[in-house]
């Protein structure tokens, strides 16, 4: 059975750096989780470095503005690394090619400051997918024709957010990862810029190394997250421990936020072929 902990503090002493997921751990898409913010502040006060690592399809500064709006204090983290940052690096390397942006208007900030030419899907050289145009009503099925046309043209897709779904309050909404997976299933070529893939972890550890003056040992790095697919598998593949939070996107299948079904949790980990260092309902010092 998983190692369940109620408080983070005893585990915290084993680590120098946290790579902490944001949505589902630090906030729920509407407001900050105060106990999680306090836990991060206390970890930092003890000499630790907390890097927020998120599949948000926007640059770190854009993520910071959202965190400000949700009430996440600046002293809860040292830096932010986003899949949007990784995506921007990919777009920069394809300078001179035209882009079809598949996603909502609010994500256009991912291109700010870049020399980008936008084009319709019929003429674009590649696609940057940051999400659904309207995630309040649409599903991946809504994009059957769009993805078929992309496949017909053999367009390369850059997925700026590999998450399948995230919580928005008490509701789950689809993310870019759902469209990217559907396109991959059609035989399309996809580059995933966030968790569980290595580039975002490498970027986060580079920031930690700059802040600490030396690269941290991976044995002293802990990832925290609520998704088996992105956080847990990503940490395992990158060679760092993971603290798994049950009150996020898997809450309903685990029987609710307050008392997760340990048998169901064990089955999820077994099916994924990975296990966390420990499990907690929510990040609490």
3D shape: globular
CATH superfamily of the largest domain: HAD superfamily/HAD-like
Helix/strand class: alpha/beta
Q: Assembly type of the shown chains?
A: single chain
- Spans of at least 5 consecutive residues whose pLDDT stays below 50 are none
The CATH topology of the largest domain comes to Rossmann fold
Total helix count? 9
Count of individual beta strands: 13
Terminal Cα separation, in Å?
23 Å
Mean pLDDT: 92
Structure write-up:
The chain is an alpha/beta fold and 285 residues long. The chain has two domains: 9-84 and 196-280, Rossmann fold (3-Layer(aba) Sandwich); 87-192, HAD superfamily/HAD-like (Rossmann fold, 3-Layer(aba) Sandwich), CATH 3.40.50.1000. The protein is 33% helix and 19% strand. It contains nine helices and 13 strands. Strands 3-2-1-11-12-13 form a six-stranded parallel sheet. The chain has a five-stranded parallel sheet with strand order 5-4-6-7-10, with helices on both faces. Strand 2 (49-54), helix 3 (60-70) and strand 3 (79-82) form a beta-alpha-beta unit. The longest helix is centred in the last third of the chain and has 15 residues, at 198-212. The radius of gyration is 19 Å and the shape is globular. The model has no long low-confidence stretch (mean pLDDT 92).
